[in-house]
Amino acid sequence: MPVDYRSLPLAELAPYIQHTKIGVGITRDEIVAHAEEAARYGFGAAMVPGSWVSTVADVLAGTGVPVASALDFPSVGVMTAKGKMAEAAELARLGATQIDIGVQIGWLKSGDYEGFREDIAGVVRASGVPIKVMLELPLLTPPEREAAVELSIEAGAKYLKNASSGQIETASPQSIRFLADRAPEGVLVKASGSITSFEQTVALLEAGAACVGSSAGVDILNRTIDALTESY
């Protein structure tokens, strides 16, 4: 039976949101507060820069909230395959249990399908944790979209992700449905890109996302509380 996301108690909606804090100049106090928020609200993961993974893993130890990180990001597709493998292995060693990765869009567009696939597969093998591939769908032609999805699945990606950020795409139900329709059993979809409201979050989940990544998770839940309060 489909989940009725609109009627979920907030404590049950929070696990669908990956609480994200990625940026320049994040301080220790800010990252600890972010991790503590993730635990307090019960978010589906705390997504943080690689340099803070070990700190966040310590804060979240015993809470059940996963630690996630990203690599080859925000400039997507600039790392070497071996460099990406090494960084993925290090993030996993430090405590990351999920990793979002940039993919080689340029290689895909150049027809190097084997290189595109093996770049992902190397990270899967090196890390040993679920890998989410940021496919940058708006940058791809329809045939390239199909190839990117197929190759990512062949490479062992656990999640298909529509985009790396809102600079590429404001997450849309259309993009999520495209991925969900092509994901086989065992492969999930993550929505990403300027997700800031309860209504948008629900629409993306209804379209087939297993989770959404957002830096506005607390605000989404608090606005939902306000809306529910005003309705009584």
Keywords, separated by commas or semicolons:
alpha/beta; 8 strands; 232 residues; TIM Barrel
Within the CATH hierarchy, at the fold level, what is the topology? TIM Barrel
**Could you say which overall geometry the principal axes of the C-alpha atoms support?**
globular
| Tally of individual helices | 10
Query: How many separate structural domains?
Result: 1
Distance from first to last alpha carbon: 29 Å
Q: If classified by CATH, what would the architecture be?
A: Alpha-Beta Barrel
Order of helices and strands: HEHEHEHEHHEHEHEHEH
Average of the residue pLDDT scores: 94
Structure characterization notes:
The chain has 232 residues and is α/β, with parallel strands linked by helices. The protein has a single domain, classed as Aldolase class I (TIM Barrel), CATH 3.20.20.70. It contains ten helices and eight strands. An eight-stranded parallel β-barrel has the order 1-2-3-4-5-6-7-8, surrounded by seven helices. Helix 2 packs parallel to helix 3 (53-60), helix 4 runs parallel beside helix 6 and helix 8 (173-182) runs parallel beside helix 9 (198-207). It starts with 9 loop residues before the first helix and ends with a helix.
How does the SSE layout of this entry go?
Blueprint: H1 10-13, E1 17-20, H2 28-41, E2 45-47, H3 53-60, E3 67-71, H4 81-94, E4 98-102, H5 105-109, H6 113-127, E5 131-134, H7 142-155, E6 159-161, H8 173-182, E7 188-192, H9 198-207, E8 211-214, H10 217-230
Parallel strand pairs: 1-2, 1-8, 2-3, 3-4, 4-5, 5-6, 6-7, 7-8
Helix pairs in contact: 2-3, 4-6, 6-7, 8-9
